[in-house]
Amino acid sequence: MRRSHFPAEVERAIRAAPAHSLPESLEKAIVEGLPDVVVVRLLLADYHLSVLLSPDGELDDAPIQMLGTAAGRVFISRRPMLEPVTLEDGSAACEILAPVLARGERLGVLGVVTTVPEPGRLVDEIDEIAEIAGAALKVAWNHTDRYERVRRRRRLTLAAELQWQLLPGQGCAGSEYSLAGHLEPAYSIGGDNFDWSTEQDHLALTVTNGSGTGIQAALLTSLTVGALRNARRSGGDVAEQASLAGDVVHARYRGEEFTETLVLRIDLADGLVSAVDAGSPRLLRMRGAKVTPIELEHQMPLGMFAETAYEIQHFNIEPGDRLVIVSDGVFSAAAPSGGDYGTLVLEQQIRRTRLQDTSEVPLSIIASLIDYHEGRDLADDAVVLCLDWK
């Protein structure tokens, strides 16, 4: 008979495993602890969040598409489900699929195929084990290259390597909010970036639109984000963060290069937002079905001038509000036929996401942006960040 504390035993097993062998330790623990298990598979999402890939697979193995598959639906919805399967010998079985999450960030999907007569009674345990695996993966990620290799269907540019390693993740969630962001083009992003930090009483957010292209843009953004983090971790408010980062960038580039950055602090108790708008990232709010730009005073980009003093502005968000922040590569993107995306399409596309989960909003807007380019490659880096305030 199964032990009621089985998920805790799985957690102990994968915690004791080397970082690079977590999938094998997870499989072994599940097979030993659950009845009639035929297959255990751990699938990880690629950089585009368009397919799921096995850590054991080679680059030429067929990926599992997010759209039109049971595993994809579980990843998108973040909810477990049962999927009937037929084994090689023709007998019937069932696959229990559960999302692999780490504090709200979607990493992949765990699938457990079993022939047990009542698989539904195992769903809660598999769901809990998938979340345990997600937390363990997030820790193991920095100790091995195995999982990073899985995510790449082709080689990243060096600039993209720097930018992805700079990110805190692609999503997080708390009782007051859920948050998700995405970068495109995923394999060759240059200077755009987003960052966040969750605290007991507030959420800190920044979106950076770096100037230039390639490795130079990535280095400029890395310097900017590092300076912002340094000021934030030293207790500086959003104005002090912007001022310190601006001085650091100016000391290095003497005004020849700069970064356009939006710096936000959101108080968790009442939704009061403190903001410094130092450039081009655009902020829009959807309340109900109405989408409106939040107009802030545009102040000097970080690093354009030395010893720039920044003013803090305030606005409030209410439960049910959705904030969407986009970089200049989204807002000002032009179609071959003319007209920019931010003026003609963006607000309408945000309204269309009204019923979507937070994690799907950046991908939906990016997909709409790519369609707007009428098949041409994106002319500039694109960042989309979505915050749902609960």
TrEMBL record:
<keyword id="KW-0378">Hydrolase</keyword>
<feature type="domain" description="PPM-type phosphatase">
    <location>
        <begin position="174"/>
        <end position="389"/>
    </location>
</feature>
<dbReference type="InterPro" id="IPR036457">
    <property type="entry name" value="PPM-type-like_dom_sf"/>
</dbReference>
<protein>
    <submittedName>
        <fullName>Serine/threonine-protein phosphatase</fullName>
    </submittedName>
</protein>
<dbReference type="InterPro" id="IPR052016">
    <property type="entry name" value="Bact_Sigma-Reg"/>
</dbReference>
<dbReference type="InterPro" id="IPR001932">
    <property type="entry name" value="PPM-type_phosphatase-like_dom"/>
</dbReference>
<dbReference type="GO" id="GO:0016791">
    <property type="term" value="F:phosphatase activity"/>
</dbReference>
<dbReference type="Pfam" id="PF07228">
    <property type="entry name" value="SpoIIE"/>
</dbReference>
